[in-house]
Amino acid sequence: MATRIRSSSKRCAVVGGSGFLGRHLVEKLVEKGYSVSVFDIRQSYELPGVTFHQGDLCNKQDLLVALRDVSLVFHCASPAPSSDDQALFQRVNVEGTRTVIQACQEAGVQKLVLTSSASVVFEGTDIKNGEEDLPYAKKPIDYYTQTKIQQEKLVLQACNKEKGFLTVAIRPHGIFGPRDPQLVPILVDTARRGKMKFIIGDGSNLVDFTFVENVVHGHVLAAEYLKPDSPLCGKAYHITNDEPIRFWDFMSRVLVGLGYDAPRYHLPYSLVYGLALLLWLLTLLLRPLITIKPTFTPMRVALAGTHHYYSCARAKHDMGYKPLVSLHEAIAQTVASYPDLRRGA
Ligand SMILES: NC(=O)C1=CN([C@@H]2O[C@H](COP(=O)(O)OP(=O)(O)OC[C@H]3O[C@@H](n4cnc5c(N)ncnc54)[C@H](O)[C@@H]3O)[C@@H](O)[C@H]2O)C=CC1
Ligand SMILES: CC(C)=CCC[C@@H](C)[C@H]1CC[C@H]2C3=C(CC[C@]12C)[C@@]1(C)CCC(=O)C[C@@H]1CC3
């Protein structure tokens, strides 16, 4: 490891700081008096007190410039799961994370907080109140998740108290909130195309959806509690709203809040899953000729039709985590933040 440069504990960098979670995190850090550098392949906004560095996290030289005099790094960059680009996931999430770790070590960064995902243990079958010590999925639901597993292992294994480099991973689940480009927009798009009429299974499956501000709170706590003598070193922590909700109730509350009808008709889970699998095989076969992006992928059907909620007891115990915003309030704030997605808008 290179010679350490003295850096202020209030100087931090957010890799992926132009993204949905990253930007909310940057805003909170600024509010808390941190001086923040954003490192991202794109710049999506400007904020007083924030320095932007545009670059690819796979390029160590680019990173080193952004990490100068920084003591704390948040790594929340990733290609979008929907990109479905295996080579890109491998390059950015695995090789790129290796580069982020090396750059942190060379720049004398003391703490690295990774945004992982609770899905690293999910194989498409029920998980009820899952704890962090569940084994990593042997058959992850998609290639994105497979590389999130490899990424988390790399970051946690890099934790080295002797060398003064501490790491921790936050595993959120189903992040939603204002400016989210995925969950609510996909849902509304599906509703506008008339495809949100059906409930997959009996509709009783419980899932965690986590308000972005609570996820940010978990990251900030992790950074502040990560010390050489703390239990956080080299560990993963679930951060959720701690209020599992029926998947279809959540979808319905958002849809109805935006003026759309809630789904009503039930379809058997195995039927929909089987059809999604067939469709997926068909898209693979036809890929050389045409590109089809089906709404119902096996992964989405599994996410929509199984229980998958996680205990955040470890985060409560080790870093005093408690969600700041209830699910009820979070849904209300989220719905109000999307006037353009309302029915008829
Ligand atoms: N959105 C969700 O429900 C969940 C997200 N996560 C994780 O949270 C993190 C943040 O997710 P979101 O904010 O939703 O995603 P996002 O797509 O809004 O943000 C990711 C950011 O990473 C940047 N990025 C991608 N490749 C890069 C590269 N090569 N170099 C530099 N920057 C690059 C993008 O430009 C983007 O600004 C990701 O690591 C994701 O895996 C985990 C669980 C759930
Ligand atoms: C809990 C969790 C990990 C959420 C991640 C977000 C997305 C995977 C969901 C956002 C909108 C959801 C959605 C469906 C599946 C999961 C999402 C993409 C469906 C495709 C499920 C099948 C349907 O009937 C339509 C749904 C549209 C919205």
Automatic annotation (TrEMBL):
Q: Where in the cell is it found?
A: Endoplasmic reticulum membrane; Lipid droplet
* Positions of transmembrane segments: 271-290
A molecular function (GO) held by this record is: 3-beta-hydroxysteroid dehydrogenase [NAD(P)+]/C4-decarboxylase activity
What is one process in the GO biological process aspect for this record? cholesterol biosynthetic process
- Give UniProt keywords alphabetically: Acetylation, Cholesterol biosynthesis, Cholesterol metabolism, Endoplasmic reticulum, Lipid biosynthesis, Lipid droplet, Lipid metabolism, Membrane, NAD, Oxidoreductase, Steroid biosynthesis, Steroid metabolism, Sterol biosynthesis, Sterol metabolism, Transmembrane, Transmembrane helix
Q: Does the keyword Hydrolase apply?
A: no
So, what pathway does this thing act in?
Steroid biosynthesis; zymosterol biosynthesis; zymosterol from lanosterol: step 4/6
Q: What top-tier enzyme class does this entry carry?
A: oxidoreductase
EC annotation from Swiss-Prot or TrEMBL? 1.1.1.170
Name the reaction it catalyses. 4beta-methylzymosterol-4alpha-carboxylate + NADP(+) = 3-dehydro-4-methylzymosterol + CO2 + NADPH; 4alpha-carboxyzymosterol + NADP(+) = zymosterone + CO2 + NADPH; 4alpha-carboxyzymosterol + NAD(+) = zymosterone + CO2 + NADH; a 3beta-hydroxysteroid-4alpha-carboxylate + NADP(+) = a 3-oxosteroid + CO2 + NADPH
- Membrane topology label: Single-pass membrane protein
May I ask which residue range the UniProt record assigns to the signal sequence?
none
GO CC field: endoplasmic reticulum membrane; lipid droplet
Residue ranges of domain 3-beta hydroxysteroid dehydrogenase/isomerase in the record: 13-267
Q: Does the keyword Lyase apply?
A: no
What protein family is recorded?
Belongs to the 3-beta-HSD family.
Under the subunit heading, UniProt states: Homodimer.
Task: Return the protein name.
Answer: Sterol-4-alpha-carboxylate 3-dehydrogenase, decarboxylating
Native species: Astyanax mexicanus
Gene name of the encoded protein: NSDHL
